[in-house]
Each structure stands twice: as C-alpha cells, then as structure tokens.
Amino acid sequence: MSDPAADPHILALDVGTLSVRASTYDQLGKVRVAAARPLGLERHSDTEIEQDPQELIGGLKSTLQDVLAQSAQEGHPIGVAGLSTQRSSVIAWHRQTGEPLSPVLSWQDRRAAHYLERLSNQAHTIKGRSGLFLSPHYGASKLRWLYDNCEAVQAAARSGDLQFGPLAAFVIHHLVEGRPAIVDHVNASRTQLMDLEQRNWSADLLQRFRLQRPLLPACQPTQAFFGCLAGTQIPLQAVNGDQNAAIHGLGKLDEGTFIVNVGTGAFVLLATGNRPINHPRLLASIANSTPETATYLLEGTVNGAGAAIKWAEEQWGEQNLSQRLEEWLPMVKDPPVFVNTIGGLGSPLWTEGPTPYFNQDGDLAQKSVAILESIIFLLQINLEMMTNTGQDVRRIRISGGLSALDGLCQLLADLTQRLVVRSEVTQATSRGIAWLAGQPKYDWSELANDYFLPRQNRPLQARYRTFCSLLGWQ
Q1: Which of 113, 185, 195, 237 is the most buried (most CB within 10 A)?
Q2: pLDDT 10s digits, 385-423
Q3: Is the same domain home to 145 and 270?
Q4: 450 and 319, same structural domain?
Q5: In terms of residue numbers, what domain contains 463?
Q6: CB neighbours of 145 closer than 8 A, spacing ≥ 6?
Q7: 298 forms bridges with which residues in the sheet?
Q8: 135 and 15 in a common domain
Q9: How far is residue 311 from each of residues 112, 219, 338, 426, measured CA to CA in Å?
Q10: How far apart are the first and last CA of the chain?
C-alpha cells in the first residue's frame, strides 16, 4: 500500500483581495510548502476600487516559483494544480500579448451602477437566467464601462486584439502554456452574462448589456483540464471562485450545513443539488461543475465584513482592530448598533443603503464591537432567508480570516441558535481548490474542530431587531 504522504503533492494558487498565495498539500490535506505576497487595493473613491494587474501577476508568479523551488529541494513532486480567484473582478487585456489594457476593477468596485438603470425593468428576467440580481458588483456593467471609457480598450477592439472578462481568465492566460482564453463556470457566472442552467454565455444577456461574445473567454467546467502551467508538466485541473473553493476546504460538501466564510466580504452558502433554485432575494450559483453535471448553491453575500473593519481603521487612524476585538468582545456589554453599508448592502436587501452610521455614540471598543456585531446581523438576515426555502439546516461551518475571533463565532451561535463549527483549516480557499484539483481518495474532513454552542443572549437579539428596523428590514 502506498504512503499517501509520499504521493505527488497538489499545488493550490489563490488570488485573494489582499494577497496572492501558493501552497502545496499532500494527499492527506496537510500544507507542506506555502508562500504569499501582499496585494495593494487602490480606493480612488467609494465606488472606484482597483488593483494593479502587473503587481498581481508578478506576485503570483513569484510565489509560484518559490513553492516550486522549495518543493523540488525537498524532493516532493507536484502532480496537479488548482487556481482560485476573486469573483466579480474584471479586466481587459491584449488578446495576443496578454498586456493589461485596464486596471483590475475589483469586485468591490461599483462605478458602473448607472448602466443598470436602463435595465431595471428587465431585472426579473436577468435574475432568472443568471441567478444574480442586478448589481454593479458583478462584471457585466464594469465590462461595459471599460468598453466605453478606456481608450486602450477601444483601440484594441478596433484592431481585433481585445479580450476581457473575469480576472480568472486573465490569470489563466498568464499562467498556462499557450496563453488560452478560457474561464471556469463559477467565475464566468459572476459576470452576470452566463446562463446558469446551460452553463454557457447567454446571447440574451450579452445583448441586454450590449457586449459581444467573441470578446469573452470560452467557458468550461470548474473541474477540467485548463492546460499545463507554463514551463512545467503540471496540469491545471480545477479553477473556481474563492468562496466556492472555500466550501470544499474539508472535502465533500456536507448536507444541512450553512457554510459561512468571513473575509474581506462574507458569504453564506447552502448546497441545493443539481438544479438551481430561483429565490426572489438570494443568489443562485455553482459550487462545482464537471463535464457531466453541476452542484448548485443558494448564496447570500455581505460586502462589509473585513472591509468594514478596514474602513474603521482608515476612518479612525487605528491599526489591528481585529486583533484587539478579541480582548474587547467579552468586556463590552452594551455596544451601539452600527448600520453597516460598507460597499453597499448585498443580499437580501440589494441597495446602496444610507451612509454608514452608529445609532448612538460609544468609545473605540464599543464602536468596534458594534461593527463586528453588524457583520453577524447581516449574516443572520441571510440565514433566515435560506431557512425559509425549507432546507434542513443543522449547523453552521465557519471559515475565513475573521473566524479566528472566538467572540465572533459565539455571537453567531447565539444569534442563529445553531451550533457553529470552526475547523483548524484557516486557508479554506487554498485547501478547497487543492481538493477539487487533486480529488484525493483520503478523507480531508478529519481535522480538530472548535464548537460554539448557542446560548441565550437577549440583548444581542434586541440589538439585531434594532439593526433590522434601522435598515427598514422586517
């Protein structure tokens, strides 16, 4: 019988919002080698948020080379690779050279909101086909904005050299031998231009957004052969969005489990089988797809999670608030309520909302705790919507950077009155894309878990009701 630790390792590449990461995993799901580089985020205004594509690709290639070199030095061959990226971020590039023709417009970018006004009477049809509500966070309106406002994009369109689409496609173009123009179903779907059930670009949606099919990369399943990483024999066998990869961090999806990932944004996901559910206020998306089938999700999204903590640090000139929150959470008994509209309100409200504010004053600790509670409140609104679909939900599994806060996990258990389970896997996205790429035969779910049992917390419930009332959500 072979030793699983000696089998070829799995390479995971993760393009996050604030960092790029390369890691290798053995067949038992243990990290063997890892490297990361920070990524800058340029906020030109509340709605214009960009990243430097050269910094992103340079950082990713640098981490990749570090990991390949260290793996070779340690005598660990790499058999397969997977790539996860931010969803809803878009970019334009030169079809032949790969040169970026625009910055990366972040998933947080909302500059193209005005393009959606003329489509408001078509929102129901667009949602039914794409699974997504009209929102400037998704790629379609941002791609249209690039086409209309960037001279380099217009010049490339005239010469037949324009390619644009999800950030994942740009990364694949730069990483894979032969510079293909391809993208996975999940990242394609976040443009709002893909027919979710057909799993291909929709001629109808393209027409509504006035975009041309030849400018976009070809769609293919998340688990498929994307080509070999340039200069290697390592096949890229899985590409997925970061949150969709993260739900596979423990291997196969559990039934009856809400999956919450709390990073810069927060996401709540629930698997619904091999057909999408068209819910009036929640997103439908794909967890994973193969050439034969797909697993669909209901999804809720919160824009102001870690982004709200970062906003507070910038507003107040403070640093490391998330680390100090662990100390403050048990001490603060009566925080104000923070109306968290950082980045606009995601599901199920789908509106920009008022300017962020506190309903009463407080000191630094109280206001910081209020911001953290607001993240929990937005998650709870989404959880309530999902339970109304008749799905049996027994537990919440939490991951992501902010899940390291015990106090956050306990508040979530108290408010939802459900068991919250936090696994020791901290880089759920990297581990998930590794599992999808490698499809190891060993169980990756056997990790040490932290359990947070629900307690009665009436003041928290009262603040939640106040929060909903301030948002006009009943």
Answers
A1: 185
A2: 998 888 788 899 998 889 999 999 999 999 999 999 998
A3: no
A4: yes
A5: 251-424+443-471
A6: 105, 111, 112, 115
A7: 270, 284
A8: yes
A9: 22, 36, 13, 23
A10: 59
Same domain, 272 and 330: yes
Cα three-residue angle 122-128-130, rounded to 5 degrees: 95
Query: Amino acid identity of 134?
Result: L
Quote the DSSP letter at residue 8.
Answer: P
Residue segments in the chain with a per-residue pLDDT below the cut of 50 = 1
294 and 339 both lie in a single domain: yes
Q: What does the DSSP 8-state code read for residue 401?
A: G
- Note whether 62 and 168 are same-domain residues: yes
Amino acid letter at 326? E
Say which residue the tokens 């086409």 belong to: 147
433 lies in some domain: no
Tell me: do 174 and 273 sit in the same domain: no
Q: What is the CA radius of gyration of the chain?
A: 21
The domain that holds 21 is classified in CATH as 3.30.420.40
Q: pLDDT (tens digit, 9 = 90+) per residue, 31-90?
A: 999 999 999 999 999 899 999 999 999 999 999 999 999 999 999 999 999 999 999 999
DSSP 8-state code for residue 228: B
Q: What tokens does 264 get?
A: 């810069």
Name the one residue in this structure whose structure tokens are 């939490």: 398
CA distances for 306 relative to 155, 263, 269, 322, 452, angstroms: 38, 5, 18, 9, 21
- In DSSP terms, which residues pair with 90 in a beta bridge? 105, 166
